[in-house]
Amino acid sequence: MRQKELRIALVCYGGVSLAVYMHGVTKEIWNLARASRDFLDNAEPGNGVRQVYREFLQRIEQESELRLRILPDILTGASAGGINAVFLAQAVHSGQSLEPVTELWLEMADVDRLIDPDARPWSRVSKWWAMPFVWWLLKRPGNAVSESVAPETRSEVRRKVSHLIRGRWFEPPFSGIGFSRMLHDALVAMAQSPTESPLLPPNHPLDLFVTATDFRGYVELLRLNSPPVVEESEHRMPIAFRARTPAASGQSLAAIPELVLSARSTASFPGAFPPLKVEEIDRLADEHALEWSGRDEFLGKIMPVHVRRETADDVALIDGSVLVNAPFAGAIAGLRGRPAQREVDRRFIYIDPRPDRLGAIGKSREKDVGFFSAIFGSLSTIPREQPIRDNLEVLEQQSREAERLRVIVAALRPEVERTVEKLFGMTLFLDRPTPKRLKAWRNKAQQAAAEQAGYAFHSYAQAKLTGILERLAGLVHASAPGLSLPTADPIVGQLRIALSQRGLTDLANPSGGASAEAIDFFRAHDIGFRIRRMRLLARRLAREWESDPEIDDSALEEARETVYEILAMYFEREGLTPLGDEFAGLSHAVFEDAHGVLDHLSQSRLLPEVDDRAEEMLSSALEKMPKNLRRRMLLAYLGFPFYDVATLPLLRNEGLTEFDPVKVDRISPEDARAIREGGTSATLRGTEFYNFGAFFSRAYRENDYLWGRLHGAERLIDIVCSTLDAPLADHVCNSYKRAAFHAILDEEAESGRCRQSLLDGLRAEIGERTK
Question: Is the keyword Transferase in the record (predicted)?
Fold first, then answer.
């Protein structure tokens, strides 16, 4: 049975109170991933919409002979979208429930709850002298409430706006520590809810990326031709987490204070909330006796310059969407270093509740730009609506390069396999592949590839050396913030000097192939080569050989398990973890003793020993394989050096390891019209009152949350259908959409969270539109 992974890189835009809609969408991503996990694990079926999704995946297996797993493994967001990304990442990693988060949005995301106690008017007659101004602002002809708020909610909105106006002036009305407490309580409620197994396979990387804005910023140095150095202020502060998925449930993605800091800072809307300072999170940790032993390490990671300059306590963080409202760059960076266990369909899905904003621009073109419109537009609206074209062009370029690489490898294969067969003769397939023989064959193939490459070997070896030195220098740079280096380039230069002193002056041997010094260096440090080699095997197992009826499915699965166990061993040697605590001290002394750094890297990672263990595992697996699969595995494993010589100099982004084109999908009210036409304006209420509408009305939050779930279900079914080579018939997809819609309404009716009249109205529309 063919298998495929539909991997989701999710981008959640900022949108103020439209975060409630985005929560509804992310809840359906969560439900779909849960159904997918249960389906692949043959677990007990769930209920509600989760059961509908499982039946949908079973139908795909029956009709398309494809077992599909949905993996939301890269999650990014800005502002209120960042909050949703944090909660979804915690649920995916830990197996915890998102249900408590729904209560947060519906019950707590109200101005009466968010307002700082010190900002409340102390009586009905507070600021009595301001009442005429309040009346004029809220009830004059053409006022903002009358123009942008539905009639049935205007009195509620006017009452709450009046409270805000008659509260404190010239300070943010909402409580910063109160907001942090709400986020903390939601995370605690998630931890106390019933847990399931994580939604990603064990050891699969999960990336979370949210944006924040450093209000005061810090000075960075730029190197130019003239003058040689200039200063520039930097205000972007990305907050990133990467974790390997645990096998057991209930393990938090990160310390609770770190998740609260991330969510609180990215959604610190200017003027509404006070900027976040670290002391607020320290206060929260003290109130709840939270364990935060990694505090200094975390702050050093997200604000290294401030930590070095001892100004971290003075940092003021405001809303991430001020500078980056659509954090595609963080999601693109998350593509690096991701193993591909099966065929992968990588999707970037972005949630945009307001794609109709251009319509509003068009309607106002006849009017002159007013004084306040120009100020607010330049300071807030325009920066938050920057185009994503540049990000999509980057993805398109990477997809073209991935496709080009596949074409090159496919064209090389016949010649490479003939070369390997000629190099080893029939003994390759007759001899028992012991670890000793595999090692000898591997060394022989690598030397032959180097010798036969001729002049091309020089560029290949230089590309290898440069890539290795840049990765090693990156480890040193990350471990030595005290060096105050803007980049790792000076460290690369120092490592080159050390290698030259060790005799590595020429990478090529005059008689052909690699020099002895180059072989020793690559053997000690070239982890990238090893990972690329095993990924080639994984790709062949997942894509080319899976459809061969001569190869048994169980044999393929056993081979895959071995390949990924070996990959896991190499992955464990990446990063700073295996280098130990003493590496930081050695890194700070790299300009005095680069030899000590190189020796420590070699002795800590012990790659030749990992090679021996890997070949023991591979030879054992090869011995059990049917002959046709064993032959293909050996041809790929021993042929890899020939592929690598030809392709590595072409790879501008060696870290992009899924080697599959990336497709982009959008989820928005404009794209989901199965129930109601009209898009955003016809469905969402949080758009009212300058996108703050849902914070003023529980009814609005219920409406937007429900539409988020319904739109999410519709678009996710569309996206799943689009991954099939032969899509299901329209009436089949529509039947599952209809079933999902009704299941969602049944769940909400049972929970009692939403008004029955709203549920009944939507159910009637569904019945009318989806007959």
Answer: no
